[in-house]
Amino acid sequence: MANGCAQVFGCLLATLGLTCLIIATTVNEWKTDRHTDDGKVRSQIKNVGLWMECRSDPGREECDIFDSLLHQTTEIQVTRAMMILSMALSACGLVTAILGMKSTLCLEADEQVKNKVAFAGGMLLILSGVCALGIVSWYAHGVITSFHDSNPRAPRFSLGKCLFLGWGGALLSIIGGAFLACCSLSKSSPRRAYVSSTPVQLVAGKEYV
To answer: How do residues 120-140 score in pLDDT, each as one tens digit?
Structure first.
């Protein structure tokens, strides 16, 4: 029973992690530029994501969609591919883990197979979180490096909200996958049959109520 509850908790964490990864991938705020060369905050804000780039003034916002797939920077192409891969692994891991959870009726005939399926789902979720954690950290490193660039004309981008969502989603996927994998490894204790050492004697002619 405890393992089943832990599996449900891990599945909920992984689902929340996948939601965070989807939002982080689609929302346009991976890095933000809102400072002038003197370090002062200006009214115009520039947000760059994986799919578009937006400039917003008070009361107006203009966005340029990245139409071409091949004419983008290596940073955007690699980050797109890894985030999509991470979401696909997370979705496959969730489906696989649900099939192997103790609270579901799938694969109920063979408990060993059911545990192996749940373990495989947990490992897919952990792999998904590792991929997302690595690529988000790599992207953040690029933003921090460009911020400290000695070129005065270089834009001073800061970390966007999507990076923190990506880190959170990656950690939730890893923790949820670890719950599912660890619970599938623990085996339920077999039932013991107790046999009385004293033989039971039936006395004829007596009725027991």
So the answer is: 999 999 999 999 999 999 999
